[in-house]
């Protein structure tokens, strides 16, 4: 059986990628394409526990600890969920992957790209997405959306970072796209969710087997 396709959605907090990941999974299922939706950090029992540690707004953590915990959650997710689903020919939609670590722990926190890359090659066993969507939105708009979402409960540890941090993260994503024009699509996320979804779907359809 042919391996399934692997799609990843990336972007700064507030870019709308979780909404889009859900819409993509729903559309795939409507088209009778077996699909699995998962997210990082999380997606497994161990990963969800690590997620709680990572996002606890009261917690403090060094960059190296943060980088290793994201990688640990990812190792479990690849082994337990992503690779088995791909082996069964299923399409996998993942909300964040290795590029979140390069953008947040690399550009955001200052960890060396090479270190993050090597660690993640190890934990993913070299697995790379067939297509990564970067949902791009300016930092001010993302902040407005997060403030609305968190009006009553406050943001998590990463969502509470300052604007310069998010500017660095966004720039890193855009640089990544520039250097990987074939495997990365930047989609403006200023439009309504349905319009963003149509753009994502048209790219996905282009590479779905037998559907070009
Ligand atoms: P996310 O799932 O986008 O949060 P939410 O459910 O609130 O939309 O991601 C959680 C946070 O983790 C987000 O701020 C980005 C951060 N993150 C990293 O810093 N490095 C990583 O490798 C990953 C996967 C996420």
Which features would summarize this protein structure in a list?
8 helices, 55% helix, five-stranded parallel β-sheet, Rossmann fold, 212 residues, alpha/beta, globular
How would you explain this protein's 3D organization?
- This protein has 212 residues and is of the alpha/beta class.
- It has one domain (6-207): P-loop containing nucleotide triphosphate hydrolases (Rossmann fold), CATH 3.40.50.300.
- 55% of the residues lie in helices and 12% in strands.
- The protein contains 8 helices and 5 strands.
- The protein has helices spanning 17-30, 45-55, 63-87, 98-108, 113-124, 139-149, 163-179, 193-207, and strands at 6-10, 35-39, 91-95, 131-136, 184-188.
- The chain has a 5-stranded parallel β-sheet, with helices on both faces.
- The longest helix is centred in the middle third of the chain and has 25 residues, at 63-87.
- The radius of gyration is 16 Å and the shape is globular.
- The model has no long low-confidence stretch (mean pLDDT 95).
- The site of thymidine-5'-diphosphate has 16 residues, from helix 4.
- Thymidine-5'-diphosphate binds at residues 13, 18, 39-41, 55, 70, 95-96, 100-101, 104-105, 156, 158-159.
Total helices: the number is 8
Architecture in CATH?
A: 3-Layer(aba) Sandwich
Uncertain stretches? none
Give Rg in angstroms: 16 Å
Biggest sheet overview: 5 strands, parallel
